[in-house]
Design brief:
Length: 1156
């Protein structure tokens, strides 16, 4: 067992890892502050003068990238706005210097980030790959302007249908034969589809395995044959009978006959039947196995006995036993060879069919000009490693990136690591003139995404590589900044058990920075359903009428008992006077009551989530569920789908009735009856128009008649997204549905409606007016479970319990965590799946094959599979680690026993054993462990108003009705005085050039000056290339080059050195927008260049008039006096203490005229 790391040591180590000059790999345990450390590293890089655009920070989810972006901006803003003492403290916490220059520089970082042309690249791994491919589509051999598709279930179904269509068109072809082999081996089409989809999902592994091979399937078969060590030219049955001939087997049969017990007689019968065949082949082999093997295919037990020796003789008995052992060994060896041959034959068919399946799938995507996530990874890997222009692409990317930071490295898959390696090598081999660094952070204990091909062993591989190549520092962080001591004690007790250390040998005992934070761990005994006695005798002579009398059922289940227990604990927690220690906006600690939003219920999967939700709903406990693919099942979405369908199929009476009854129109039952009884020879849509003619304009039927007719006319004329937008606005859809549900459900309904609106953009980006196509798309995804959209997370402030899977909780925390269904054992579905072995140190997989049912697996495959099962068990423990470490103060563990047994197993047994080392169980068999005081009265004086409002389950603030009234009596601000556009600003005055040509010239020179002033400044060639692309002008255009030369000469003119290359610490801004209110008017303009010195400000406006006459320039300058005056006024409002000097810089005549 490793020694415990103290919080103090953790803090010092983390600051070393944050140093911009140190290459570092950090193993950060749960809650140890890895995001803070990563953001600190970025801030230290910026303080070290790193350009924001040269920093690349990668993570694996959009949520994590957004969190990093938010945290970085918050901390930079804090540095810019805090007082001097707080600034020094913040810099010291980050391990930065606190000298005057650093203090000054830290104040400017927020502004630098906002104005940087290329900001810090905080990206997901896939967005990074997408960015690379977007810049190099031709080199990557992909379609320029591709779109990214995230849900591929429909595409996979199209590929599957195309595969089977092709096979049925030629039933005697190779594809049909291979599919037949797979169907028989996989026991039907369902498992066959599972096997082929597994290969499709591992296509990156397949491509890497067979890279550079002309016939991938043949190559894979050859490799597998070598691994299985078999010679397919040898008949295993003939080989068996060559060493176990008829005479040998007949001798054994004769010995069986000498001791004719019933079993021996049956075995002799099977053996004699086998030997009676003319040819000793597979049939003979199958029959003789019955004489030597049991039904479980194990050698029959044969031992010496007195009766047996008396019948056979001592020598005969010994011969009998020896023959049995040798023949059994030969049979088992032959069976093993047969299994290996069957493995090879099955995999050969799987390789060929799967490769063709992948080809069809890829072809469909090419036709639709889309790429999926696997494509992004593979094409980026190929582009950076094996493409013809790989070195050139590496060079171009390397010029943009100096610092690489990778978060959650334990989630990296082999393809991602292989595409990152060339970039890291470029940094390692870089010149000494550029400051460069690499920073990796992750935690192997939190690797729970093997279904996404994540390989946690890559973290150690990367750490070793960086250590050897760049002398990178390896830093462990094991002190939590999240959890109380009670939680950490329980985590240590669980994961230091010998049983777990076999799978997690590197586990280091954790500590916490929150040693004084109160906390509890409560482990309940498993819930079970006790056998109940029948209260009454069932009358067997009396038949039940199923139409009138329901079947008597006991609805109580062990799961329901557990759910009720959880509901009881939630109610107790919320009723407790003081349970949660929190901090207010000033950073002061206080104790408060727990609210529903403090509680998170975690489960291993969603199998039983509906049962927990049902109990919570019955008990009136508000919650946020975690149902997948349930968006289209909500009533509001079903109503909208029917509404859209009725616009193109108005003859569907049932659809019209549902739309009328829905909250869209809220028609009554009487309204529907009136329509049903009127004009029976017509369809309901026509009846509606006739019946509504006599109604008031605000009557539901009148509204329906008007809007349905109006929307029907729009259905095929505008894009679906615009149509739904119009329906939402004109029908007041969101408000109508929000008003139809309980307050706790309103935010959920709003979010669902918004998500449905967004879905209209997912089909062809919402470009085409094809409502029927959109409805067909909805019906298609409804049929496929994996493609159904999820409900969006509601973003309101109502306190609600969260129900999440452990996977979904990754990266989250809660004051109270309830780990439910803790005794549930995860089933490992390895049958009909892809078995890939890609060691961390290899550039490609070493094996790739299909796993069949357990009975048909050969010993070679079994050995590889054992390694996979070891990794799976390790991941299950990682999942437990993630679950336990989500808790901040209170952890409750519940579970359900299997088959009415209250015996613990699985996770519950591990936790229960760990708790026995911390405390004793009470009389109720509940383990309770606590540290610190968790009772008392909430400090209401410390809690803020916001804190107090959250103490109720529904903190709804009543709105003052006056706020809903229109505001009157206020003059509308006139828009807009625009100095940059309103005043005479034409450089064609007196020049003999037309206006269009002058405007073009002015735009080119302004843009060129901006590029030349950029840090680092653009060269003439770079500026020419960029302007050519931006303005769609040929690079050799005479006017373009003339304007660029004029701008370049202006920048390098010695008389303007103080403007473009100030010697002091002046801050310079180019094309700076300024906006402010002046009386009842808004002033808006763009200042070409602003130089902010410590004691003054210089404001420059460029003029590109081709005039050199002094008097004309002087007269012309007066036309811009009011423009500069407005600019100066805006700048003075920002820096009121500094004098502002303004001037006009005439680029053609190289004259600077100051106008104050």
């Amino acid at each position: 067992m490793n020694a415990t790391n103290s919080p103090e040591k953790d803090s010092s180590d983390s600051l070393v890892a944050a140093h911009p000059g140190v290459n570092a790999t950090v193993s950060a345990s749960a809650g140890s502050g890895k995001t803070w450390l990563l953001v600190t590293r970025i801030i230290r890089l910026l303080l070290d003068d790193a350009e924001p655009g040269s920093i690349l920070a990668l993570t694996f989810t959009r949520k994590a990238a957004a969190e990093m972006q938010m945290r970085l901006q918050e901390r930079l803003f804090q540095l810019a706005s805090c007082d001097q003492d707080q600034l020094i403290t913040l810099l010291q916490q980050a391990g930065a210097n606190t000298d005057e220059a650093t203090l000054y520089q830290s104040r400017l970082l927020y502004e630098k980030l906002l104005y940087s042309e290329i900001p810090v690249r905080l990206q997901t791994f896939h967005s990074f790959c997408q960015d690379i491919l977007s810049h190099f589509p031709l080199e990557a051999e992909i379609t320029p302007g591709f779109e990214l598709i995230e849900n591929t279930a429909l595409l996979q179904q199209q590929a599957w249908d195309a595969l089977f269509t092709e096979a049925t068109q030629n039933t005697h072809g190779h594809l049909a034969n291979d599919l037949d082999v797979l169907m028989q081996a996989c026991n039907g089409p369902t498992n066959t589809k599972t096997a082929l989809n597994s290969m499709l999902n591992h296509r990156n592994d397949w491509w890497a395995y067979c890279e550079h091979q002309s016939d991938a399937a043949a190559y894979a078969s050859q490799r597998l044959q070598q691994q299985l060590d078999i010679d397919t030219s040898v008949d295993p049955y003939a080989d068996f009978f060559s060493s176990n001939d008829r005479n040998t087997l007949a001798s054994f049969s004769e010995l069986l006959g000498k001791h004719p017990t019933k079993p021996h007689s049956q075995q002799k019968h099977h053996l004699d039947r086998a030997l009676s065949a003319d040819t000793l082949d597979q049939d003979a082999f199958d029959r003789l196995q019955l004489a030597f093997l049991t039904t479980s295919n194990q050698p029959r037990s044969r031992k010496p006995s007195k009766a047996q020796a008396a019948k056979m003789g001592d020598a005969g008995e010994q011969q009998f036993l020896d023959l049995h052992n040798s023949v059994c060994a030969a049979i088992l060896h032959t069976r093993e060879i047969i299994k290996r041959i069957q493995t090879l034959e099955l995999n050969a068919a799987w390789f060929r069919t799967g490769e063709h399946y992948i080809e069809i799938y890829q072809r469909i995507k090419r036709e639709q000009r889309v790429l999926d996530f696997a494509d992004l990874e593979w094409h980026s890997y190929r582009l950076l490693n094996t493409a013809d222009n790989a070195n050139w692409v590496q060079y171009k990317i390397d010029q943009r990136i100096n610092h690489v930071l990778i978060d959650e490295f334990q989630d990296t898959n082999p393809t991602q690591w292989q595409l990152l390696t060339p970039l890291l090598r470029e940094i390692a081999a870089g010149d000494d003139e550029r400051a460069r660094s690499i920073f990796l952070v992750g935690d192997e204990k939190q690797s729970i995404y093997s279904f996404r091909r994540a390989n946690p062993a890559l973290q150690q591989q990367a750490s070793d590589w960086l250590s050897q190549t760049l002398s990178a520092r390896s830093t462990p962080l094991d002190s939590s900044r999240r959890s109380s001591s009670a939680i950490i004690d329980a985590v240590n007790a669980v994961f230091t058990q010998e049983e777990i250390l076999q799978y997690m040998p590197g586990y280091t005992q954790h500590d916490t920075h929150l040693r004084d934070l109160p906390g509890t761990v409560t482990v309940f005994p498993l819930c079970s359903l006790e056998p109940s006695e029948e209260d009454e005798t069932v009358e067997t002579t009396r038949l039940r009428n199923p139409l009138l009398q329901p079947r008597a059922e006991n609805l109580e289940t062990a799961r329901a008992i557990e759910a009720s227990l959880i509901a009881d604990q939630i109610e107790k927690l919320v009723a407790m006077p003081a349970c949660i220690t929190d901090t207010n906006q000033k950073g002061e600690s206080y104790v408060r009551k727990a609210t529903y939003s403090d509680i998170m219920i975690l489960m291993r999967n969603r199998t039983h989530i509906s049962e927990y939700e049902s109990v919570l709903r019955d008990r009136g406990i508000p919650f946020i569920g975690s149902q997948r693919g349930s968006l289209l099942d909500n009533q509001e979405i079903q109503d909208l789908e029917v509404l859209l369908d009725s616009l193109i199929t108005p003859f569907n009476n049932l659809s019209i009735a549902q739309v009328l009854k829905s909250p869209v129109f809220s028609a009554s039952d009487d309204d529907l009856i009136a329509i049903s009884q009127a004009h029976r020879d017509k369809k309901w849509f026509e009846r509606l128009q006739l019946v509504a003619a006599d109604k008031d304009a605000q009557h539901p039927l009148s509204r329906a008649a008007h809007w349905l007719s109006h929307w029907s006319k729009l259905a095929d004329t505008i894009p679906v997204h615009d149509l739904i937008d119009r329906i939402y606005a004109e029908g007041n859809i969101v408000e109508r549905y929000s008003s139809s549900v309980a307050p706790a459900q309103r935010q959920r309904v709003r979010a669902n409606l918004q998500r449905f609106h967004e879905m209209s953009l997912e089909l062809n980006s919402g470009r085409y007016p094809s409502l029927s196509h959109f409805l067909h798309y909805l019906r298609s995804i409804r049929l496929h479970k994996d493609s159904r959209p999820d409900e969006p997370a509601a973003s309101n402030q109502l306190a609600r319990v969260s129900l999440l899977t452990i996977h979904a909780s990754k990266g989250l925390e809660a004051p109270v965590v309830i780990l439910a269904d803790c005794d549930h054992k995860s089933k490992r579905h390895n049958a009909y799946s892809t078995l890939v072995n890609w060691p961390a140190g290899e550039s490609k997989p070493t094996s790739f094959q299909l796993i069949t049912s357990k009975d048909n697996i050969d010993s070679v495959t079994t050995n590889v599979l054992e390694s996979r099962e070891h990794a799976q068990h390790r991941e299950e423990l990682n999942l437990l680690y993630v679950a336990l470490t989500r808790a901040r103060q209170h952890l409750l563990v519940t579970g359900v026993s299997a088959e009415r047994s209250n015996m613990s197993s699985g996770w519950h047994a591990l936790i229960e054993t760990a708790m026995q080392t911390l405390t004793d169980a009470g009389d109720d068999s509940i383990y309770r462990y606590s540290r610190g005081s968790t009772t008392g009265i909430p400090d209401e004086h410390t809690a803020t108003a916001t804190d107090q409002s959250l103490m109720t389950s529904e903190a709804v603030i009543a709105t003052d009705p006056r706020l809903k009234q229109p505001i009157t009596g206020i003059d509308t601000m006139e828009t807009v005085i625009a100095p940059s556009f309103s005043f005479q600003d034409r450089d064609d005055i007196g020049s003999g050039y037309d206006r269009d040509e002058s405007l073009k010239r002015g735009h080119i020179i302004h843009r060129a000056l901006e590029l030349f002033c950029h840090e680092p400044p653009r060269t003439i060639e770079q500026t020419r290339q960029q302007l050519s692309n931006e303005l769609a002008i040929d690079m050799n255009d005479a006017e373009l080059n003339e304007c660029i030369e004029e701008a370049h000469a202006t920048i390098n003119n010695e008389q303007f050195t103080n403007l473009f290359k100030p010697l002091d610490k002046a801050r310079c801004y180019n094309e700076l927008p300024v906006m402010y209110a002046q009386e009842n008017k808004m002033v808006y303009g763009i200042i070409d260049r602003l130089i902010v010195h410590e004691d003054r400000i210089e404001l420059i406006d460029y003029k590109t008039h081709r005039i050199s006459d002094e008097s004309t320039l002087s007269t012309l300058s007066q036309n811009y006096k009011q423009q500069l005056s407005l600019y100066r006024e805006g700048i003075k409002r920002i820096w009121p203490e500094r004098p502002v000097k303004s001037g006009l810089l005439f680029t053609n005549s190289a004259r600077l005229i100051w106008i104050d």
